[in-house]
Amino acid sequence: MRVMLVEDEKAIATDIAEGLGEAGYVVDVVHDGEEAWFRGETEDYDAIVIDLGLPKLDGLSVVRRLRAAKVTTPVLVLTARGAWMERVEGIDAGADDYLVKPFHMEEVIARLGAVLRRSGGHASPQLEAGGMIIDTRRMTATIGGRSIILSALEYRLLRYLAHHAGRIVPQTELSEHVYGGDREPDSNALEVLIARLRRKIGSDVIGTRRGHGYFMTPAGGVAPVAQSG
């Protein structure tokens, strides 16, 4: 899952980015509101974590502009402001949740996971797809009751496909959300990663629609059909 973190205090940004990275997220760090507004409109993120007190353009204005532009990416606001009226203002601007500094990293991860689940229509931290159960809190996966040992990249890929189970995910999109938009993996890196995963979990868990992308079948559902044209 790919997240944009917007925080002007670089030491705080580094700490949060490291914590989110350890929790399985790909993190792009931005330090001012204008860049956040631009990237939020032009890049494909699963969520945005944003401070309110930003240079060039404040966080609330960023959220308002993104929502006015019909950007529906879930937003978690981080702020040193604790007054309830300011929290209401943040929610009214279009934020999905609000966390007041100082906070524990575990709470940031929990709140972020919750807004992602709500945006994807998932009621539980456990994602079920392709016959697998992926626990997003523990970063574990099981299939048929058997635990699967996953690398960080393997976990990111499985979580993204499970979060979007029932949809064919194009290769370019999957690569961005596994490796990050600012990184350029080798041209066949994704295929190698999927081949390695299939050896661990079976060849049928991750499906392929040639020329379209990859998918996982939702629990109790059917495999998606590629749209022509």
UniProtKB/TrEMBL annotation:
Ranges for domain Response regulatory: 2-116
SMART domains: REC, Trans_reg_C
Entry keywords, A to Z: DNA-binding, Phosphoprotein, Transcription, Transcription regulation, Two-component regulatory system
GO molecular function: phosphorelay response regulator activity; transcription cis-regulatory region binding
Modified residue annotations for 4-aspartylphosphate: D51
GO cellular component terms attached to this protein's record: cytosol; protein-DNA complex
DNA-binding region listed in the record: 124-218
Domain OmpR/PhoB-type: 124-218
Record GO biological process: regulation of DNA-templated transcription
Entry keyword Transcription regulation: yes
InterPro entries listed in its UniProt record: CheY-like_superfamily, OmpR/PhoB-type_DNA-bd, Sig_transdc_resp-reg_C-effctor, Sig_transdc_resp-reg_receiver, WalR-like, WH-like_DNA-bd_sf
Listed PANTHER family: REGULATOR OF RPOS (PTHR48111), RESPONSE REGULATOR PROTEIN CARR (PTHR48111:SF37)
Annotated protein name in UniProt: Transcriptional regulator
